[in-house]
Amino acid sequence: MIHKKNLLISFIALFIGFSSFAQQTDSAYIRANFVKIERNIPMRDGIKLFTAIYIPKEKAKKYPILLNRTPYTVSPYGENNYKTSLGPSSLLLKEGFIYVYQDVRGKWKSEGDFVDVRPQIAKKKGKKDIDESSDTYDTIDWLLKNVAPNNGKVGIYGISYPGFYSTTSLPGAHPALKAVSPQAPVTDWFMGDDFHHNGAFFLSDAYNFYSTFGVPRPKPITPDKGPKSFQFPIKDNYRFFLDLGALKNANKKYFGDSIKFWNDLMAHGTYDDFWKARNIRTHLKDIKPAVLVIGGFFDAEDTYGTLHTYQAIEKQNIKAKNNLVMGPWFHGAWVRSTGEKFGDIEFGQATSTWYQQNVEFPFFMHYLKDTPDLKLAEATVFITGSNQWKSFDTWPPKETESKTLYFQSDGKLSFTKPTTTNSFDEYVSDPNTPVPYQDGVQERRTREYMIDDQRFAARRPDVKVYQTAVLTEDIMLTGPLTADLSVSTTGTDADYVVKLIDVYPEDSEAPKVNPKGIIMGGYQMLVRGEIMRGKFRNSFENPEPFVPEEVTAVKYALPDVGHTFKKGHRIMVQVQNSWFPLADRNPQQFIDIYKAEDKDFQKAQHRIYHDADHTSGLTVTVLKP
Questions:
Q1: Cα–Cα distance between 137 and 330 in angstroms, integer?
Q2: Are 100 and 68 in contact (CB under 8 A)?
Q3: Which residues pair with 389 in a beta bridge?
């Protein structure tokens, strides 16, 4: 069983409501202007979901409903205990809304059984056929009939897992649902969100999350009686997970057999029917509500979900009102910070405040309260580097071209295809000394690794570095990236991590506020990094071994970027075979990694080819001047 000591304070602080600096509203205002009621709302199958409802005291007007469905608790519980903030931002608080928060089925004080990323039932045959779409529909229907004075219009929003529940409100949506904002929505936990990226298992995130979130709940409970946070016996997460050894040791040493979804993760190592059933994207058809998809380019958890939710709606709904906003944000930063900086990088403006005022607030006001149409651009994107908001008619923009940055001999990088022969870099990767995902020592995975300095990695012999000459003009990237590698290994499996990096000039000034003494001269800012489990290079359903020492193509997509490499900077690409403990270690032999033994992890020799016959590089999407 899990070792537990303290209440899960840090977990709740991270996920409840994503309170922003702008949402430091005194609960006295809410008490003075809202009545809180708590109800157990019946679903079609008889299960009741616990719901907290905040209704304006002023009854002369009718108000739209803003709904947030969450697995992370609607606390505080009790009709005399009020939240200190309501809604997606403080701007909406005084505009007149009925705010509704609901514990999803099987979580906290709601009845029923919880199912992670509950599969959608496209064709329901009876009242027992339920999913998150039906629970949302039934909730809205009950609210309209039982909570007055409402104006018959409903909006839904949520970040991360609540973002998933926002997305699931869209298929077969209730006619009263007019505006939906999935924000960093969980979308596909095998392909790119949270716990897997291109088939590689994201060890630290899955372990940290499910060691608490996955603890069984025998009956409806409140947070004070809920699961306790896992206490790491080794505070250095690199050392802890290296000491853990093979994945199967997690149950032996810590979990026992108590964490159901952890066991599911261990049992479903390919893109099988278990994962396919949890892909909500195929159900995003015939969408009627207006949709505003929000995400951050530096979101460590659900950048994939943001971009692919938007794309799925766009491709499958010709007439849908579907807009995208991408900012320079970590997970939830658009409401949890002003967005002026992230990590060591400054953006020169309060990007989160701008978004709340100019996008989110008018979106909900227009669709729920009939204010004038904000005429929002199809895609509103903040471009780091040049630090500017840009509006596009499509995403990716039409005015772009794909160009490949080719690896060259002597660590060079160029848009010119190499002409040399028999050119490659050779090195050894040892899973027992994996490349760290970030410099320094951390107890838990940080969010800053997404944008952090990569000089620590560039110094390792098992990280290959390629960089351009000093740029003579700005290069703005707006869209997807594709790693296209020609490689070989002496093993039969391998992971490949490709990182796109902005190298600052040596005379770059330090941040104005610089308590860590950061040296920006030569800073290697991570713009995008992504991993690929090599055995899935041709199919996520049917993995294939590498043939030792045979030149093999490994090609995969990295999430979109919006970044300007400024004149005087350099573009760098780093390639490595581990990213630990962000991703689990690859034993470098073709076996079921989830059942591997400690002895299975072995060294392998790797080659990255970069000649006329076997090119390697990174294809980028360049915005035309």
A1: 31
A2: yes
A3: 382
Pairing assessment for the beta strands 604-609 and 524-533 based on DSSP bridges? unpaired
Rounded to an integer, what distance in angstroms lies between the CA atom of residue 532 and that of residue 521? 31
* Consecutive H or E run containing 482: strand 475-489
How many Å apart are CA 496 and CA 457, to the nearest integer?
14
Write phi, then psi, for 466 (nearest 5 degrees). -130, 135
Q: Using one digit for the tens of pLDDT, what is the confidence trace for 305-315?
A: 999 999 999 99
pLDDT of 217 reads 84
**What separation in angstroms does the CA of 487 have from each of 107, 135, 459, 619?**
46, 49, 21, 17
Question: Are the C-beta atoms of 146 and 116 separated by less than 8 Å?
Answer: no
State both tokens at 342. 């992230």
Instruction: Kindly state the helix (H) or strand (E) to which residue 542 belongs, with its residue range.
Output: none
Contact 291, 322 (CB under 8 A): yes
Find the radius of gyration of the CA atoms of the chain.
Answer: 25
For 542-555, letters b (16+ CB in 10 Å) and e give ebeebeeeeebebe
Q: Tell me the one-letter amino acid at 332.
A: G
What is the residue type of 99? Y
Pairwise CA distance, residues 605 & 583, whole Å: 20
Q: Which own/partner pairs from 211-218 qualify as long-range (CB within 8 Å, at least 24 positions apart)?
A: 211/2, 211/254, 211/255, 211/259, 212/2, 212/8, 212/11, 213/11, 213/71, 214/259, 214/260, 214/261, 214/262, 215/2, 215/258, 215/259, 216/258, 216/260, 217/106, 217/107, 217/108, 217/114
Sequence-distant (6+) residues with CB within 8 A of 575 are 463, 464, 466, 485, 496, 497, 498, 499, 608
Query: Could you tell me what percentage of the chain is helix, strand and coil, using 3-state DSSP and rounding each to the nearest 5?
Result: 25, 30, 50
Handedness of CA 349, 352, 353, 354 (dihedral sign): positive
Phi, psi of 182 (to 5 degrees): -75, 120
Q: Is the pLDDT of residue 411 over 50?
A: yes
Q: How far apart are CA 440 and CA 405, in angstroms?
A: 30
For residue 187, how many other CB atoms are within 10 A of its CB? Answer: 27
Range in 38-42, 253-257, 348-352, 511-515 with the lowest mean pLDDT: 511-515
Do 484 and 618 touch, CB atoms closer than 8 A?
yes
Tens of pLDDT, residue by residue over 424-472, are 999 999 999 999 999 999 999 999 999 999 999 999 999 999 999 999 9
C-beta neighbour count of 10 within 10 angstroms: 12
| Both tokens assigned to 102 | 């609901």
Q: Which residues pair with 29 in a beta bridge?
A: none
What's the mean pLDDT in 60-70? 97
**Each residue of 137-190: pLDDT tens digit?**
999 999 999 999 999 999 999 999 999 999 999 999 999 999 999 999 999 999
Neighbours of 623 (CB within 10 A): 20
3-state secondary structure of 437: coil
**Number of alpha helices (DSSP H) and beta strands (DSSP E) in the chain:** 14, 27
Query: How would you classify the pairing of strands 424-429 and 604-609?
Result: antiparallel
Classify residue 387 by its DSSP letter: T
Rounded to whole angstroms, the Cα distance separating 269 from 466 reads: 33
Q: CB-based burial of residue 371 (10 Å sphere; 0-12 exposed, 13-18 middle, 19+ buried)?
A: middle
Beta strand segments in 393-514, E: 400-407, 413-414, 424-429, 464-467, 475-489, 495-503
**CA 226 to CA 461: how far, in whole Å?**
46
Q: How many CB atoms lie within 10 A of CB 25?
A: 17
Whether pTM exceeds 0.90: yes
CA distance 230 to 227: 9
